[in-house]
Write a structure and sequence with these properties.
The protein has 162 residues and is mostly helical. It has a domain of 113 residues. 80% of the residues lie in helices and 0% in strands.
């Protein structure tokens, strides 16, 4: 009799261990699916924000004129103010890209390819804007990222395209 109880107990323990392993495999699978969903959502959001920023530029002649004036070096005070607001908004999108990279949701190259290397940063005015930005607003890692990836784009001539 005692031997049968031992067999049942051992069988129950084995079934329990297999159940725990199956549960862990299921949880790992669910986490993987959730990670993929979060990554996909982040890519979609960043793409939408980049698209919206491009459309904003196209829908506002004053932004177009201000960017053109910046390329020719003849920016008025009003155009300078327009560009500061424009670049302030663009930096919030760029900051979101950077934070997605920091969280491991996107890799840096993908984040930059989702509009992070766009024509807005290929304007000499961007370097002027960045030189007067209150750097205390940003994480040191983001400051380094902008200096490494974006500011050099403004040195490569003027590009009004997107």
């Amino acid at each position: 009799m005692g031997n049968k109880n031992w067999i049942w107990r051992e069988t129950a323990e084995i079934i329990g261990v297999l159940g725990v392993i199956a549960s862990l495999v299921f949880v790992a699978f669910e986490i993987r699916q959730n990670t993929d969903a979060v990554r996909s959502s982040a890519i979609q959001d960043i793409s939408r924000w980049s698209y919206d920023a491009t459309v904003l530029t196209l829908d506002h002649p004053e932004i177009i004129r201000a960017r053109q004036a910046a390329c020719s070096g003849s920016v008025t005070d009003d155009q300078r103010a327009t560009l500061y607001v424009y670049y302030s908004a663009a930096m919030r999108i760029q900051l979101n890209r950077f934070q997605q990279v920091q969280l491991g949701i996107l890799d840096e190259d993908l984040a930059l390819n989702l509009g992070g290397r766009g024509g807005a940063y290929r304007n000499p005015f961007f370097a002027e804007f960045w030189s007067v930005v209150d750097k205390d607003e940003f994480d040191p890692g983001f400051l380094e990222f902008v200096e490494r990836e974006l500011v050099p784009l403004s040195q490569n001539g003027c590009r009004l395209g997107f």
